Amino acid sequence: MTMTTTPRELPHTPWGRVRQSRRTADRLMKIIATAFTFCAIFVLFWILGMLLVKGIGGLSLATFTAVTPGPGTEGGGLANAIVGSFVLTFLGIAIATPIGVLAGTWLAEYGKGSQLANLIRFINDILLSAPSILIGLFVYVILVEPFRGYSGWAGGVALGIIAIPVIVRTTEDMLNLVPGPLREAGAALGAPPSVVITSVTWRAAKAGMVTGILLALARIAGETAPLLFTALNNNFWFSPSLAGGVSNLPVTIYQFASAPYENWQQLAWAGSLIITISILLLSIIARRIVAGGK
């Protein structure tokens, strides 16, 4: 038995009109996207230009060697604030790195799709977008109020809490990118999971994990709100015990920019330029590490 098929007539579709409307929508979308892109770039360069113009005038040798001046005092610099910021940032990242790396490793290697892992990811996402002033207030309640005084330790803990979710997210993402056969090869040699993780997966994801730590470092380097509740500020060098207020750049900029003294305002611009350049350098280093890891 032979079967015959008759060709079906396709319905007429005005393809020309559809394509023309799509091309018009595409052009319109491209024009809008390009216009907003140039707006964003214009604002960015406007901010950077203003920082350069107003900040360079405040940069001198005294900026990096003299301590912050008192009210109505001429001269002075930002040396104590720069050193204090470095100490607080280093303390924060030292607290956050082991916690963030180990938590991200557990999520990627052990927890995976479990309900506990999903709950931790949800809490981590909330912390990632939480206002930093709330974290500062939280640390104030648990570390400043009970000990009846501001301290560098409280400031470091506040910055560490802000950095932890960034490191957790990047560590988990980077470990998830490591191919499964690498883990299977390590397990086939008889290595326990802990050795496979530390010797194989961590090594393969090393560049991405370091980049996450640098991004967290850049995130906390310019935080002001949590330090207002924890480390506060002063015009002196920090004590090695980190007791009492610790001078730092973000709070110094906040206080000097709103003060009526001209030299304070000039130093605030110089401090803003120093922080911007520092974050820019950290971002460039992170990109170079990512490019080198590919």
Can you describe what's shown?
The chain is an all-alpha fold and 294 residues long. The protein contains twelve helices and no strands. The chain has helices at residues 15-56, 61-65, 79-111, 115-129, 132-144, 152-176, 180-188, 193-204, 206-221, 225-229, 249-257, 262-293. Helix 1 (15-56) crosses helix 12, helix 7 runs antiparallel to helix 8 (193-204) and helix 11 runs antiparallel to helix 12. The radius of gyration is 27 Å and the shape is globular. It starts with 14 loop residues before the first helix and ends with a helix. The mean pLDDT is 88.
Topology readout:
Layout: H1 15-56, H2 61-65, H3 79-111, H4 115-129, H5 132-144, H6 152-176, H7 180-188, H8 193-204, H9 206-221, H10 225-229, H11 249-257, H12 262-293
The percentage helix is over 70%
Question: Mind telling me the C-alpha Rg?
Answer: 27 Å
Cα(first) to Cα(last) distance is 62 Å
How many H/I helices? 12
Strand content: under 5%
Low-confidence stretches: none
Coarse structural class: mainly alpha
Can you give the mean pLDDT?
88
The number of E-state strands comes to 0
Give me a quick take on this structure.
The protein is mainly α and 294 residues long. It has twelve helices and no strands. The mean pLDDT is 88.
